[in-house]
Amino acid sequence: MEEFKAVSEVSLRLALGETLGLVGESGCGKSTLAKMLLGLLAPSEGSVLINGREVLPTERKAMSRFIQPIFQDPYSSLNPRKTVAQIVGLPLRLHGLGSAAGQAAKVVEMLDLVGMPKRTHGQYPAQLSGGQRQRVAIARALMLRPQVLIGVVEHLADRVAVMYRGSIVEQASREAIFSAPAHPYTRMLLSSALTPEPGLGIPDIKRDFETLAA
Q1: Residues of the signal sequence (predicted)?
Q2: Domain limits of the chain?
Q3: Nearest Cα to 169, choosing from 14, 52, 12, 15?
Q4: Given this model, what pLDDT does residue 211 score?
Q5: Which residues make Cβ contacts (< 8 Å) with residue 146, sequence separation at least 6?
Q6: pLDDT category of residue 205 using cuts at 50, 70 and 90
Q7: How far apart are CA 7 and CA 167, in angstroms?
Q8: DSSP assignment, residue 93?
Q9: Maximum average pLDDT range among 13-17, 103-107, 185-189
Q10: Which partner from 16, 83, 117, 129 sits 20 to 30 angstroms from 111, CA to CA?
Q11: Within a 10 A sphere around the Cβ of 64, how many other Cβ atoms?
């Protein structure tokens, strides 16, 4: 039986301030890759390197100052028994950064940055709207000023990396991916996108499954 690797020899380049969108069908390895980058999942073989530093599950706390996740479902990632201020301030407390007064001030500053009014700071996740929970999750992820954020990006991306069967098959600017996709799988993804009306949006490109399987 042929061994299947969920992720194999993936290399991504990300410039400072850049947003990279990772796309591919369900099961292609996106979530597995994200978990390994965060140190939540150890690779079965080989290693995971970020800026030349190996990511190890045993060093998750240290790596959390460099890379942070913004979960797709904010409600499940927020402690229902903690207030908004307590949730956002948790990273500072875990790392022992600053005095209690300094931490409280930074929490207020960050919540203000993401548009959470002061009246919500003492509320619990169940009292917030879905959008407000997402803002809280973003504020918490930003508290340590990480260099990399991992989250679900639906509309904003400077560059796009296309993942197929555990490997990156194409990386290019957003414009290049949509106007001149180079890989057959990328073209297949674009052709499968639904458009509001026939004849509008992305053209219908024939799916070359024989090429993909080669």
Answers
A1: none
A2: 20-151, 173-213
A3: 12
A4: 40
A5: 64, 65, 66, 67, 68
A6: very low
A7: 6
A8: H
A9: 103-107
A10: 16
A11: 18
